[in-house]
Design goal:
nine-stranded antiparallel sheet, alpha+beta
Amino acid sequence: MNRLRLLTLIVLVAGVVIATAAYAKKKQDDFTFPPKAHHVIYALWHMEKDGTKTFVAVRVRDVQESGAWREWAAGKGPDGKDRASTHEEPANSKYPGTNLYKSLAWFRSRPNFLREEMILGYRCFTLDTGESEQTFSQELGLTPLKYVSGDTVIEALKIY
């Protein structure tokens, strides 16, 4: 009888431990970081067929806590002349406002999810958009940290 009680107690404790761990994992996967303002400095590269990269431009993106952003770029144009430009988030953005911040579960559940990777110390998720691969961090919302399309690569150099 004592062995049965001991066995029952062990099974009960093990069940509680497993249930607690499962709940904690789900809560962690569903966690969404609060929006925060941040700045990202990017390098724009042209990839040659042999794998060498040619620097094209530098970009700076300022993202407000609301998710709205403005970006500046400077580099050589196709004609070889120095160029500078600026642009803002389009008014018809398909990701408006603070719903840009997603959970681990959201990224992993996407049918276009490709892989997880680390960029500048941030845990990132790469999604296939059909015409490109874009990499995002849960902590920075849908601010891309890497963009690859054809022979064009844009990657974050610094985040602050």
